[in-house]
Amino acid sequence: QVQLVESGGGLVQPGGSLRLSCAASGSIFVIYGMGWYRQAPGKQRELVATITSGGSTNYADSVKGRFTISRDNAKNTVYLQMNSLKPEDTAVYYCHADAWSRIGRRDYWGQGTQVTVTS
Q1: Cα(14)–Cα(12) distance, integer angstroms
Q2: Whole-Å CA distances, 78 to 36, 44, 57, 100
Q3: Which of the ends of the chain has fewer CB neighbours closer than 10 A, N or C?
Q4: Phi-psi region for residue 65, left (φ > 0), alpha (ψ -120 to 50) or beta?
Q5: Pick from 119, 114, 107, 49: which is nearest to 81 by CA?
């Protein structure tokens, strides 16, 4: 199986920055797409950004120009650089990976990391 461990969340003032990291480990053969999703209280989980194994990226309109997703394939790690943070970015951020392991190809999720933007 594959485990995803996130880090980097926290409390930040509006306009500030945070960098999230998500490291995948386990019996990994290949990791295809990776991404970040978020869920605010009372709302559904939504896509923030995704990145393919080749480096192609996709962003939610609400974060374009402020967030940057990247990955280090050698380390099986995906990052999310978040700049110009707004209170509406407050949510639990989840890492996702589409990975092929000993048990086949499936989706994996991290445990989530809290991001709170407040003055």
Answers
A1: 7
A2: 9, 23, 12, 16
A3: C
A4: left
A5: 49
Q: How far apart are CA 53 and CA 32, in angstroms?
A: 5
**In sequence order, which residues have a C-beta less than 8 Å from that of residue 47 and are 6 or more positions away?**
35, 37, 58, 60
Angle 74-80-85 from CA coordinates, rounded to 5°: 165
Alpha-carbon 105 to chain mean position: 19
List the structure tokens of 100. 């092929």
Q: What pLDDT is attached to residue 1?
A: 85
- Block residue for tokens 């930040």: 12
The single-letter code of the amino acid at 9 is G
- Which stretches in the chain have pLDDT values below 50? none
Phi/psi of residue 60, nearest 5 degrees: -65, 145
